[in-house]
């Protein structure tokens, strides 16, 4: 089930999964070049790591371990934004709109993880 930006899943694990799936679909549409090939591999890894680290956090054995995995997930969200900005779209407006949407979602995931970390540390 595809989610539009206006109808995001409430469950953060599902939302992170959908984001990683969207990044994979985006990569399939990128123009073929050596740079995009390498950047796309990094994008796929970092986008998937957001949700994977959230899952790890939920299985944490301590509060410190929980926060640690959330920080890694937040770092991966920042890295994902970087790779999204770096890929070459060759001025394709359709891809540019999807990139902007993905960057926005990465930013929102980053903010959500930051808020959870902040609450955890209080």
Proportion of residues in extended strands = under 5%
And the CATH topology? Answer: de novo design (two linked rop proteins)
Shape: elongated
Q: Give a short account of the largest sheet.
A: none
Characterise the protein shown here.
- The protein is mostly helical and 122 residues long.
- It has one domain (12-120): de novo design (two linked rop proteins) (Up-down Bundle), CATH 1.20.1440.60.
- The chain contains four helices and no strands.
- The chain has helices at 12-29, 34-58, 63-86, 93-120.
- The chain is elongated, with a radius of gyration of 15 Å.
Summarize the structure.
With 122 residues, the chain is mainly α. It contains four helices and no strands. Helix 1 packs antiparallel against helix 2 and helix 2 packs antiparallel against helix 3.
How is the secondary structure organized here?
Blueprint lengths: L11 H18 L4 H25 L4 H24 L6 H28 L2
List key phrases describing it.
mainly alpha; 122 residues; de novo design (two linked rop proteins)
């Amino acid at each position: 089930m595809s989610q539009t930006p206006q109808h995001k899943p409430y469950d953060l694990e599902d939302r992170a999964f959908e984001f990683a799936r969207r990044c994979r679909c985006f990569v399939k549409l990128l123009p073929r070049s050596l740079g995009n090939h390498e950047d796309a591999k990094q994008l796929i890894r970092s986008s998937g790591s957001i949700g994977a680290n959230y899952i790890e956090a939920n299985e944490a054995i301590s509060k410190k371990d929980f926060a640690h995995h959330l920080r890694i997930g937040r770092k991966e969200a920042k890295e994902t934004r970087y790779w999204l900005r770096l890929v070459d779209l060759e001025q394709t407006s359709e891809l540019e709109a999807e990139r902007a949407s993905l960057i926005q979602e990465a930013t929102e995931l980053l903010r959500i993880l930051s808020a959870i970390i902040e609450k955890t540390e209080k």
